[in-house]
Amino acid sequence: MHFEHSQKAQDYLARVKAFMKENVYPIEERIYAELEEMNPTGDWKNWKLHPELEALKVKAREQGLANLFLPDDELGKGLSCLEYAPLAEEMGRVPFSPEIFNCNAPDTGNMEVLYHFGSEQQKAKWLTPLLNGEIRSVFGMTEPDVASSDATNMAATIELDGDEVVINGKKWWSTGLGHPNAKVTVFMGLSNPENDRHSQHSMVLVPLDTPGIEIKRMLSAYGDFDAPYGHGEMHFTNVRVPKENIVMGLGKGFAIAQGRLGPGRIHHCMRAIGMAEKALELAIKRGLSRTAFGKPIIKLGGNQERIANARMAIDQARLLTLNAAWKIDAVGVKNAMTEISAIKVVVPKMLTEVVDMAIQLHGGAGMSSDFPLARFAAGARSLRLADGPDEVHQGMVTRLELKKYVSR
Length: 408
Ligand SMILES: Cc1cc2nc3c(=O)[nH]c(=O)nc-3n(C[C@H](O)[C@H](O)[C@H](O)COP(=O)(O)OP(=O)(O)OC[C@H]3O[C@@H](n4cnc5c(N)ncnc54)[C@H](O)[C@@H]3O)c2cc1C
Description:
Elements: H1 7-24, H2 28-38, H3 51-62, H4 81-92, H5 107-117, H6 120-131, E1 136-140, E2 157-161, E3 164-175, E4 182-190, E5 201-207, E6 213-219, E7 231-242, H7 253-289, E8 291-292, E9 295-296, H8 303-331, H9 337-362, H10 373-383, H11 390-406
Parallel strand pairs: 1-4
Antiparallel strand pairs: 2-3, 3-7, 4-5, 6-7, 8-9
Helix pairs in contact: 1-4, 4-7, 5-6, 5-7, 7-8, 7-9, 7-10, 8-9, 9-10, 9-11
The protein binds flavin-adenine dinucleotide.
């Protein structure tokens, strides 16, 4: 077993690290503060993009560092899931940085949907501008009125009517809906109730300016609106789009979702590991630099053990995630379901615990926006729900584990 990244991954990692060191880390704290000042409330219609971040997107693209997540040689950089993983970790240290590299969720997942399952026409209309970073997209699956952790519950409807499809229903927690450049949603809804459970739903591309779509509000997560992305609620009333906007065909929603979420979970988890590394670094620096009861805080009570526990937990989570990435590359998403579900449970929990430890070591400062830790805590907690709650993934691991015995 080799634990080294490929030469190609190492080269890209060195370039991303250099870019982050030169352009992102020096402005990190100021940008967080300025983004808050520019977008002080949940009033998304007035949200603004930060001009310095827009300029950095251009710079990253000029340096050949855009779309690193896409395995395609021409449209992306031809990096496998395992090769991209350490780059996602580096970006995860600063939550606003993935968009600089056009590698942010949910656009990455939506681009993968279009890349793998979109028609040529859909690719030209949506994938190209997404890859160019000209527009942003959202993923509309979760609904306010049904328990969406069971995705077969989705009740919003997609009905064929001649050359069009008609869409009705409500979606919420659609990440990125408040972004000034958000132009399209991948909408998942009930189209074929007569089919078996996993062939009843479809995905349709719906431009966000289509008549009948009403954006109701942005939801806050632990009080943070996550501007300029946001997590929005949108209602659809007799929304009509051409039937050519259906992705792959009616009833294919779950098949597409499975393909979309595998690599996406590696990305989420590696970014979370980057966040955990950053939280640990901040905890150590703070603990070494402040004194209480005659000693550096790091030497008080059980703090030294807490640092060791954090290091061990992060390294375990990374190994588990890289193994899942390797397995996706080697045998495909369908044959790596235990590994993919396992990291989705283990990594957000690890991040929650490491960030909580770092906040505690910082005292009151840890709760303030002078440090990114409170934002990390909200992100970590959200990750235990987004893309399915822990229990659903534990259920998957259990099912596959029991199957080994039941089928004997
Ligand atoms: C910050 C954030 C961003 C998000 N972004 C998006 C997005 O971009 N697009 C999108 O469509 N959705 C998004 N979501 C929504 C997310 O995917 C859902 O919240 C999640 O799937 C759970 O669905 P639900 O909220 O309806 O919870 P429910 O289905 O009501 O579940 C509530 C709880 O029930 C329990 N439960 C459920 N199933 C089981 C089980 N099998 N065993 C034991 N207990 C169980 C769990 O504790 C679960 O948390 C986001 C959520 C957050 C917080």
